[in-house]
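cron nightly-structures :: item 1 of 1
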Amino acid sequence: MSSQVSVLLGIDGGSTKTAVRVTALDGSWSVVSEYRGAGTNLHKYEGGTYTSKDRTQLGRDHLDQAIANALSVTAEDGRGSVDAFEIVAICIGTAGIDVAGDRVAFKQVFRGCRHLRHLSAKQIVVKSDVEIIAECSDAAIRLCLIAGTGSNCYGVRTDHGRKEEAFVGGLDLPLTDDGSAAWIATLACKEARRLANIELINHPLVRGIYGALGIDLTKRAAWRQIKTAFAQLGKSQLAALCETVVAPLAESDCREAKEILQSASEELGLMAKSALSCLEVDTLDSIDVLLVGGVWKNETVLENFRGYLTQFIRSAYPPCLRNAYRTASKTIRIVDPTLGAVKIARSLV
C-alpha cells in the first residue's frame, strides 16, 4: 500500500456525460477526463422506460466506468499504473439533487461502485451540480449559472454572517430550462416550421433543422413531419441541434439563428437577475458569476449576457456608491466544476 499514490476525485456528473478530475493528494498534479454515457442523474435516463432499480444500476455502472476511464487516462498521462492509485476521498457533484433526501439516496447508490467500496461514508460526499460550481470561488456573493443541455441558476452570499441562497430554474422543459441548448433548439424547430409553412423551404434554418431530423423537403407535406420527428427526440438529442445547426448558422449570419441566441442570452440574464435580486445585491463586496455549460461557448450568448448582467449589477448600487462600484470586484467567467468538487473532496481528508 505504501507504493500507491493517494488521489482525490472530483466529479461533475450530468444526464449524458461525466467529467472526472483525478488530483494527487499532495496537489502536485491533476488530470481531467470526460466520459459519455448514461450519466449520474438517477432520476432521468433517455432511450427507454426504466424502473427505479434500472436507474440505480445504470447510475452505478456509469460512475464506475467514468472512474475507470479517468484512472486509465491518468495512467496514460504518465502518473503511474491504474493499480497504483488509491482513492482517499471523492466528491460527486451531479444533476438531479433537488432535496436533502436525494443526497442520501444518491450516496447509497454510489457507495456500491466497485471503485468506491473501500471508502467509508465520511470519505464520500454527494452535492448538487450548482453546489460544486459555487466552490470554484471564495467571493462573498457567487452566482452559478448552468447553460448546457438544460439550465439552472444558483446564488449564494456569505457576507452577512450567515448563508443565504437563491434557486432559479432547474425544473426541466417546458417549465424552465430557459436559455439552454434544448430551449434554443426548441425555438429553432418552431421557427423552421413557421418558415416551412410559408414555403421558404430553401431558408438555411429550414434546411438545417429538417435535414438534421432526416425529413425530405421534396416530399409532399414534409413540413408536417417535424411534429413526429420532434416528439421522438430525447432532450440531449434536441440539445445537440444547438451546436450542430443553430450555432453554425448564427456564425454564417443567419438572422433567425442570431435572434434565437440573442433571446437565449436575455433569458439567462433574467435568471441571473432574479437570483441576484433574491440575494439583495446592494453592497460593495465581491461578486463572482460562474458559468458552466456548452451554450457559453457561443460568443453571441456570452457577450450579450455579460453586457446585460453588468448593467443590472451597476444599477443595483445606490447612486451615492456608483463611483465605488467601479472598483468593486466583479467577475463573469467560465469555470470547471471539477475544481470545486476536488476542493470539497480535499476537506474530507
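cron nightly-structures :: done
Residues 34 and 230 are 28 Å apart (CA to CA).
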